[in-house]
Design goal:
- The protein is an alpha+beta fold.
- It has one domain: Anthranilate synthase (4-Layer Sandwich), CATH 3.60.120.
- 31% of the residues lie in helices and 30% in strands.
- The chain has a nine-stranded antiparallel β-sheet with strand order 6-2-1-8-9-17-18-7-14.
- It is globular and about 60 Å long.
- The two termini are 30 Å apart.
Length: 389
């Protein structure tokens, strides 16, 4: 399924992004899975709303960006304008042209984008395994950052539209908030979606590279099945604690996401069972063991102790809430932070007692390829156009 390509031409989405970047106007563009349309939220009258508690999600409408850290602020871009078709672009551009530019973006400290070496990462795997051996946790998720130089002239809109084309079954987004930064991703994992009176959450864990295999050739081993079982049991416990006992459970099944496959179990239930508790359920679910570990409190503390970087929005969640009767919140995976001079790719792997450090390094590299392959493909086209070859 192809995205409406005219939306990605300079006269429409790219032009909107350029004006928002130049004037420091918060925006978020997103492509829903299996959709042919891209939606853009623009908030030009004030800065995004900051939530002090996720329980307040039920009372807001807009695009949410929430970090991994329990103490970090959750931002909501509450749009003054919503762009879903090239037909409305002239009116939007006219309004934005009259908006006074902000003072710009305050850069984050360099240490927040620390890039670990292979040896450092493998030592971190062993440090987490030591905590598992002590009985403090049963699983933890270790992440790392890969930095790749970026030319300031590289068009963010082009990368975003290419991601939407390459991964039509993912939730693809880009957002920019002054003094927070620009993020982009293609997440395969819904945290909580609510539409047409149906709510759904997903257990997604266990990872393999496809390696030119057919889906019928994919088999799963003990470590991967154990990871998936941990996440699935956790979600069932959360739903039961909320009194949500009538749900349809499907899986585990093999689910493809780009060049990777995962084990997936879905839970669907009547949204009426939520009883205006979207925020509370999200708070209870997030972070799931698929991105943090178990038990949640102990695993989060170990993650923040072992990892040398700040995850920021990686493994938090993003997406529209209470917009047109829908809430689509996705775990922020397969993502990158875009700075003036670099792409910062974030990726992680689930660590258990059975983990082999070198293989976990390789798995994180495979996950990075979701975005890196698109970025490098655009760079290759740029170089060919520049040389005329």
């Amino acid at each position: 399924m192809k995205v409406e390509r005219e939306y990605c031409e300079e006269a429409t989405l790219e032009h909107l992004h350029q004006i928002c970047f130049s004037k420091g106007i918060p925006f978020a563009s997103f492509h829903e899975p299996r959709s042919e349309r891209i939606t853009t939220f623009i908030q030009h009258s004030k800065q995004p709303h900051i939530l002090t508690s996720l329980s307040a999600l039920d009372s807001v409408e807009g695009f949410v960006a929430s970090p991994f850290s329990q103490t970090g602020p959750t931002y909501v871009i509450e749009p003054n304008m919503v762009h879903t078709s090239h037909k409305t672009v002239k009116e939007i551009l006219h309004t934005l042209s009259e908006v006074t530019a902000s003072d710009g973006v305050e850069p984050l400290p360099a240490e927040s984008l620390y890039e670990a070496t292979k040896q450092e990462f493998e030592d971190q795997v062993r440090a987490m395994q030591a905590e598992i051996t002590k009985g403090n946790i049963t699983k933890a998720v270790l992440s790392r950052i890969k930095l790749q130089p970026r030319r300031p002239t590289e068009e963010i809109t082009t990368i975003f539209c290419s991601l939407a084309d390459a991964y039509p079954d993912a939730f693809v987004y880009v957002f920019n908030i002054p003094e927070v930064g620009c993020w982009m991703g293609a997440s395969p994992e819904p945290l909580l979606t609510v539409m047409d009176n149906v709510a759904e959450t997903i257990s997604l864990a266990g990872t393999q590279s496809m390696d030119n295999r057919r889906m019928s050739q994919v088999t799963w081993q003990g470590k991967e099945l154990k990871e998936q079982g941990i996440v699935t049991s956790y979600i069932e416990d959360v739903l039961n604690n909320f009194g949500i006992t009538e749900y349809r459970k499907e899986g585990p099944s093999t689910h493809r996401a780009g060049n990777l496959v995962h084990l997936k179990t879905s839970f669907q239930f009547n949204a009426a069972q939520l009883k205006n508790r979207i925020g509370l359920l999200v708070e209870a679910l997030q972070p799931t063991p698929s991105v943090c570990g178990l038990p949640k409190v102990a695993a989060r503390a170990i993650v923040e102790k072992v990892e040398p970087h700040n995850r920021q929005f990686y493994t938090g969640f993003v997406g529209p809430v209470n917009f047109n009767g829908k809430t689509l919140l996705y775990v922020n995976l397969r993502c990158m932070k875009i700075t003036e001079n670099a792409f910062a790719f974030f990726m992680g792997a689930g660590i258990t007692a059975e983990s082999i450090p070198e293989r976990e390094w390789e798995e994180t590299g495979q996950k990075m390829m979701t975005l890196l392959s698109v970025v490098n493909g655009i760079n290759s086209s740029y170089e060919l156009n520049k040389t005329g070859n």
